Predict the 3D structure of the following.
Amino acid sequence: MLGKDYAGQECALASALEVLGERWTLLIIRDAFFGVRRYGEWVARLDIPRAVLSERLRALVDNGVMEKRDDPDRPARTVYELTAVGQDLWPALHALIAWGSEHRRRSTNVYRHVACETELQAGARCPTCDMVPPADDVLVIPRSDGAKGRTDPVSVAMRRPRHLLEPLKVAA
Amino acid sequence: MLGKDYAGQECALASALEVLGERWTLLIIRDAFFGVRRYGEWVARLDIPRAVLSERLRALVDNGVMEKRDDPDRPARTVYELTAVGQDLWPALHALIAWGSEHRRRSTNVYRHVACETELQAGARCPTCDMVPPADDVLVIPRSDGAKGRTDPVSVAMRRPRHLLEPLKVAA
């Protein structure tokens, strides 16, 4: 009854939650948009057991949200990247971040369209260009007064402006 | 470690998931947008144990997403309604439905702006009026070829066009 499917719930929301609704899954996807690609980077950034992380990544690959590729910088290692289907989650992620920021804890980042540097509005939409820019066309600007809670090297690497999906440069 | 909070995850998304991330919670909220207000209506519509439903509703009230009120039609009974904070979830819900509908199972409904009957686009936005209509200004139109799987009276009552947040008229 409390498994991961929603038997009898035919709607599109239930179908999305069957892929996204497990605990930690949306935070793993968030970090992928923020440039995390390596297993060890998620380990550093999220305080979850490795077995849970492995299971979540495997399910995301099985469901076509992420894909495994050879690591271009490290022979015999792999990276996980969002597929086109996974990248389509950006507006939903932006909407959840906007709600959380408005009503719970202020977002640590501002999101701007690369082309015009306008801050994205509701629906991850650029009002200047009248479009929803794809994720790799979005700038992530950490707020100068943003939370500085985490000191792991991955979180520290996220404290500079960059594009969404741009691989993080993590200090060795 | 796998409790309902995300200790050490300072971001706005984690703060939203602390309220929304429990299994079934977003489906309970979906049904509230669809006009469900009574405990027994959720029981009919969702195949979950009553204890789980009670716990989820209580948490949503505690977190300011829903509120309990006297049932206007039934003395000594209560209804649950989305607060203004809860109603602000509509764009996030629409974005998740849109992703599910595009990549998983087609949505059983179409959403239109009451004023102009234009179908809502990305971000729950009305392109004709250049605005994001609030939830009670949105028409829910069930697709004629939509899934007809559930035969409970609440799901049957959802098979007619109506406004979001309009109390469902469920056959006794």
Summary: The beta strands of chain B are 66-70, 78-82, 109-113, 138-142, 162-163. The longest strand of chain B covers residues 66-70. Residues 90-103 of chain B form the longest helix (14 residues). Chain B has a mean pLDDT of 92.
